[in-house]
């Protein structure tokens, strides 16, 4: 995690500790097939109402290509958060390419339920 200036539009930006927690849960969600990668698929999960929370990369270039997601997420009352690096997000998603947005989806009887809930609370604290 480098400390260079990030786009001020990337709000709320997770600090390094929370970023690690988020990327860790994203990685687990990949294993449980509870992850949609990419801005388009994240948009679809929000529209369908199956998204638990949305993670976006603050270093997407240009950032505007994913700035429709916070608006949609707020409409649907879904927490969203930015992490500093698209490379790290891609790695956590289990792909070799950078990923600028991903959505952790809901699943009945999921083992990740409690961890997802804790992380949603932490993200909502950032928004206050």
UniProtKB/TrEMBL annotation:
Q: What are the subcellular locations of this protein?
A: Nucleus, Nucleolus
The UniProt record lists the Ribosomal protein eL8/eL30/eS12/Gadd45 domain at 23-111
Can you tell which superkingdom this protein's organism belongs to?
A: Eukaryota
Q: Which SUPFAM superfamilies match?
A: L30e-like
GO annotation, cellular component aspect: nucleolus; spliceosomal complex
Q: Tell me which PROSITE patterns the record gives.
A: RIBOSOMAL_L7AE (PS01082)
Matches recorded under InterPro entries: eL8/uL1-like, H/ACA_rnp_Nhp2-like, Ribosomal_eL30-like_sf, Ribosomal_eL8-like_CS, Ribosomal_eL8/eL30/eS12/Gad45, Ribosomal_eL8/Nhp2
Q: Which GO terms describe its biological process?
A: mRNA splicing, via spliceosome; ribosome biogenesis
Q: Which family does it belong to?
A: Belongs to the eukaryotic ribosomal protein eL8 family.
Q: What does this protein do?
A: Common component of the spliceosome and rRNA processing machinery.
Q: Which named protein is this?
A: Ribosomal protein eL8/eL30/eS12/Gadd45 domain-containing protein
Q: Is Ribonucleoprotein found in the keyword set?
A: yes
User: What is an example of a GO molecular function annotated in this UniProt entry?
Assistant: RNA binding
Q: Which UniProt keywords apply?
A: mRNA processing, mRNA splicing, Nucleus, Ribonucleoprotein, RNA-binding, Spliceosome
